[in-house]
């Protein structure tokens, strides 16, 4: 029986080639989007599931007030937690994100030159409890290998990279020098961990090497309960059956008891975060990957829904052409159930073909949405057993949801009416209003996408071209591999002086950072004003030299530039207008010569006030800022600006800079970036979202226009005799086209009316995240509506031309 169903279904699909192709194209795109959704969800929920007792593993993070948080904790906290908090079995403390740009030197023990390697990711300072949280197979050594000062444990792949011609046994005891000053001994080798985790570390330096040698202060700051660094990570495994709420109460009490009342507003308490929550959290680590995943999941669902609506429209539009077939089937004894099964069989076959094509389209759509797909998710994720089960389930669900309504409509045809050809005249029984509602829904979605894309593009253009208070063109910036712990900046000073002698370079500056970049550094200051000491928290900080203002074109409102005098007991600082007003000064001149306490020095003197400039992206308002005279202890970013606007001159100057750089920093890559590109990178999330929405908008319009074809086919079939009579009576082709498109114009207008407030709401909500934003121009809405209408009319007229040009004699004879 089922063999006959599928044979008939296959013949029906071949007979209606145009409709089948349109259906397959739309559904394959939708199914492919749904497939990517499934693989993303499965991938994102697979992080750190392999650890034994992972439900008992937590990260301790620091909570600031009700909303703000930092994934790190104070350096002094882990020991106190281990000794004073009950209910915790293991406390593992490690420092990450501090050594990825480290210089790695492999002494060979002979007179030959030592081997120097480029920066290697995955370097952490860890205690011996790290491997109790993340157990691994030891090739040589054991977890106690990290107990001693200056010990280092390597993964097998890193060991092979560092010592390519040696056995693992011979590598044990070898010396590795990090950043010219951290000398370590290989005390263990572990197998490579290819499991999905957020903790992809492969070089483990003993934590004592950091805490007992003076490196701690320079890397993560002076130890203290109010000094929180995100790289200071603490993972704990609680006892079986321990009460999480009780441990959180103890943590809060421990933190608050160690924080003075004066600084109590600065940091609140530590709190447990489940290991399973770390990857998908939306609060602690800034912008969450999960936010991007939600965007693509929502868009994928919408695209699949549009494709399913298309299928319903096209199938019901074709139903009038199959009315006689249904009448014959019912006359020969087919009941309603058999006809429903027949049409569901056709739907299943169509979904099956679409799924095969979706797998073919998968690589293309994967690349299209690559900016929003997790970087750890690979293209071969498709080749999993679970994917087959998911596709089969999706086919069955879509077959039922999308195919049931058309099957019910056609199975309800009465045999006599069907054989007499009266079905096409029964408008009410066809529920035209439902089909038209679905068309309206499709164009509402497509138009909302289109309007939002316009708004996002307009905002991106605005933020990239807005005056941020500094120069960003013809400037190049790059970091130098100086290491402040070594106590010397000899190379950077040589490079700095040599660069200024290059003919194409106008000026150069050494600083801790450019005026605006993706990240920030803050400090706390105090100021005595009107007999009271005022504490200023979250003051943004830069260390600059005396060329900084000139290179970046900052405006000095009062006073003079900083003096670079490393012997000065009280350094010069510049402050911006916002900090000036926050302190309480009424004018820039009033601030000159006043003293501030804190920051990079016990006290500093205000030498000048600069005009406000944006120190972060335009999603943020201007923050208070202090610019310290550079003591060369905290700065290794060099910025240069060119004399001319000629690109060829820039290339020549950069070659000269690269030559000097390679001489001073042997083996290091000269990695520079034009500053206008740095500013553009501040909006990388918004730019990726805009790209994604453009793709989704294109797919939505494409699918919606195919849905229009279905409606035009239905109208043309329903009004065949009317078209013939009108042509006999002298109607022209434009008049026939107008007749067929008039109703569709009303549907597009209705879709516009519905889409405008929806698009305005989402556009307004998105713009609300920006402190500085473009206007939500009224003209965007009618332009999008007119563009959508013209696109729809072009599709309708192209498809309707066949009916409009048909011979009326043949039409009426057939009727």
Automatic annotation (TrEMBL):
Domain ABC3 transporter permease C-terminal as annotated: residue spans: 298-414, 697-808
An annotated Gene Ontology molecular function: transmembrane transporter activity
Keywords from the named record: Cell membrane, Membrane, Transmembrane, Transmembrane helix
Entry keyword annotation includes Transmembrane helix: yes
Transmembrane annotation, as ranges: 21-41, 296-314, 339-365, 385-411, 432-456, 696-716, 744-764, 776-797
Domain of life the protein comes from: Bacteria
GO cellular component: plasma membrane
Any Pfam family matching the protein: MacB_PCD
Record domain MacB-like periplasmic core: where: 20-254
InterPro entries: ABC3_permease_C, MacB_PCD, Macrolide_Exporter_MacB
Topological category with respect to the lipid bilayer: Multi-pass membrane protein
Subcellular location: Cell membrane
Protein name, as recorded: FtsX-like permease family protein
